[in-house]
Write a structure and sequence with these properties.
Blueprint: E1 12-13, E2 27-35, E3 61-66, E4 69-74, E5 86-92, H1 97-109, E6 114-120, E7 132-136, H2 142-152, E8 157-161, E9 165-167, H3 171-178, E10 186-190, E11 219-223, H4 224-229, H5 241-251, E12 257-266, H6 270-275, H7 279-293, E13 297-303, H8 310-315, E14 324-328, H9 335-341, E15 345-348, H10 354-365, E16 371-373, E17 379-381, H11 383-387, H12 389-395, E18 400-408, E19 414-425, E20 431-433, E21 439-441, E22 446-457, H13 463-480, E23 485-494, E24 497-508, E25 511-524, E26 527-537
Parallel strand pairs: 5-6, 5-8, 6-7, 10-12, 13-14, 13-16, 14-15, 18-22
Antiparallel strand pairs: 1-2, 2-4, 3-4, 8-11, 9-12, 16-19, 17-22, 18-19, 20-21, 23-24, 24-25, 25-26
Amino acid sequence: MLTVDSVNDAPTIAAIAPQITPVGTTAGPLSVAVGDLDTAAGNLTLSGSTSNPTLVPVGNIAFSGSGATRTVSVMPAPGQRTLKDVSFIVLEAAETALTKRCIQSIREHAPGSEVVYVSNGVISCPDRKADVQVDFNVNLGFAAGCNAGAAAATRPILCFMNNDAAFVDDTPAKLLAGLSDANPITAPFSNKAKPPQGDIPRAAVPKTDVFPDMVVGLCMMIPKALFQELDGFDPDLLTYEDDEFCRKAAIKGFKPKVVANTWVDHERHETFKKLGLDVDKVMAKNALIYRKKNPVIRVIVIAKDEEKALPGFFKQFEQITRDWCVLDTGSKDRTEILAKDLGCRVEKGPFEDFASARNDAVSRFGAGADWIIMIDPDERLDEHTLKHLKELLYRTTDDILYSMLQAKYPDGSIRRFVSKPFIWRNKPEIKWVFKVHEKLIGSKHQAVVVNSMNTHLIELHEDGRRQAASGFYDALMSGGAKDLKIAPGDVVGHGPLAYESGSYTMMNGTVPDRGKYLFILRNMGGNWKIEYSSWSSDLPPQ
């Protein structure tokens, strides 16, 4: 006898096509057909789950209806974006079938997104089928082409995509979901990329996020507003533009994220090959440009009882460097603790005079720096100089840069002084001299930065301290005057201006020094005052 038991068949539910909805808008109600061979349709209960609860919490999935015909509504969380908010920017500088593959992968795996195609010096092909097209008769380079594509994009999120890369799964949605306030730049893993993104087979993709200092530009997602705030990619760079961009983001406090379970197929350097470029030579050349554009800039300051001045002092340099060092010369307040809280390297040392203390600080902290910034804790450089400082260092051939100096008093009055060095190349022959009103010597390549101003904020020190400091300066001056001897040479006048040049000899501690000097003077109310001075040692480096 054959006995056939009944089988409890699984319920059925009709598939729902991929949906696109604007930010803050519910998708649905969407019709859903349900059924079950063993249970009446009216007795079936529907429930939902979500693979991305940040984008769509479970509680935002709502069902309604009865019987075999039901509906479902899906409400994204407030402020969450969908792929419809993304513009993918694809450049082509040498015609290749890989570009078509790239765009097709975007259409398949990021439906509803915008494709911006930049024809970067090639005749654009009709099968690219982009939503926005930008044409250039010449190759502007990857960085400049991407910037043009970003400007033409109409969506609030950008994703820069190499034309020799392609999506193979739902990576675009995961990159979008991975964006956050702290990590507003996301990127995938790949079979061919710099570590930590590659070289990783698809089957071995990491299951956890990685937070490197930079990500590769073969696929990089970022809000358009932030891209514009950071001034886009640097057009001076053919490669390393992604390193440079992530460095700018890091200065703002942002860190990239390589998102778990993402992957992009990449052919690597396809455009270089098509254009006949030597990849190694191009990379080496741009590595040098990148290093020159991003020198190691270190702020070194000598401080004593400067707890009131230090926070504002270092804040002015936040957008340039966070490589900060303090030589504490005997503070009794919270200077040392505060400096460490700010992330500074701190050492203690004696104070004999200003030149000796500055040279001591450089000997302690200078190793590895390309440029050194050194001004007093109560001094503030103007915003324009700070904003353009890195570009200035990239372009200049000078070794020592000066700014004009002024004192601002509590009543708002201003008094101008002689110019003062604020940054110099870290060379062993460049050193400080004079016990007070110290100067830098060791290079003939010195310049005053036009329109630059260093403001000494008198209000940061109470009257008693200013009076004590004044007496201390006078003592240093009287004690050190015998060290310096100058021999004027030419003195030439031009209306209210004059210059004096000559030679000097002095004792720098126990070491004799000699060289040349230049004074530029201005007639102010019948009195000639030094507006600028430069000192250049003739002695070889020791």
